[in-house]
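Hi P.,

Sorry for the delay on this. The queue was packed all week, but I finally got your sequence through. Input first:
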Amino acid sequence: MRDQTQKLLDDLVNQIADKNELAQIQDELFKRGVEALLKSELTGHLGHSPYEKTEEPKFNTRNGHSSKTLKTRSGEVLIQVPRDRAGTFDPVTVQKHSKMSNELEQTIILLYAKGMSTEDITEFVDQTYGVKYSKGAISLITDSLLKDITEWQSRPLEDQYAIIWIDAIHYKIREEGRVLSKAILVVMGISMEGIQDVLSLKVYETESASVWMEMLNDLKSRGVNDILYLCSDNLKGLDKAVEAVYPQSIHQICIVHQIRNTLKFVSYKDRKAIIADIKLIYKADNLEMAKEALGRFRGKWQHKYHLAVNSWERNWDNLTAFLSYPQEIRTLIYTTNIIESFNASLRKYTKNKKVFPNDQAALKSVFLAAMQIRRKWQKKRRGWTQIFNQLTILFPDRVTVRK
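Then the structure:
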């Protein structure tokens, strides 16, 4: 287990270029992990959770916190140690007059950065301290993170977003003795101030029209009243969901995905020629030129690859929406490269988990990876001032300059 722990930690370190950033992340994860362990220990000592109603009178209860400074490899970290009213709580995780071991520090960081399993946690605590945590105690540790995730998932959002991207990343998750492929739906957005952020992460059984409707309604319930551009793959049922919840939004289908889907119907020997003709469509200067290119594409290939041609005609409005806008906006909306790059980074952080034991474990791992990835983003997207000025001209009744 120690070799595996070290390997996973090395992978995490290699993904973070800035050593100062790494130290900050480590300290924060370490602090949260230790405090979660201490809270679970106190709950086990008292025999009841905070605010839990019991049939018998409570003879001992929680009594605030005391501060303790722990020395780590990167410096000192101030933690809050919970107390009980009777003064009988003697924590194992942070023993009185002792220092935290480096190995426990590493494992706690790994727990929160990699979504460690309860088996790994109990094994390590048992090996290190000779104390077996019950399943209930371990669940308290993970539940403290799940509470953070639930609060994050329901946090209020901006009332208007310039651009939102939607995509899904799939993981193998165990459920009732079976291993299923489930989708974690990812929603990213750029606010009217040019701030890029992850808006939502949720686990779903599959991608469907009802899921898209639920996702969009969730955004609306959290305060998102308007989306200028909504970008996605050609997801079945999403177009109708957008029309129902955000009818004013411009739905742009990713050109790269459309090209991939087109090539599924094309033999290998014709692919180079097909791609060249398609490029004339999406690289056109305006919509009229794109229509002319589509006409030539149809005339040349309809007899041989009618499915490929029909897919462009069927989705034409959503495929070519970007052609009506300036180049700076086109670059942002005509593909879903931004969210695909984000999903690729998620996979780097979670690649060691082939199968997650349940939905919550998958969500914890992805959430923590997402929070680390977003730390590297710029506070404001480069060139946003020019884009915002363009938006005020394109949408004069919907975009206002905030003082």
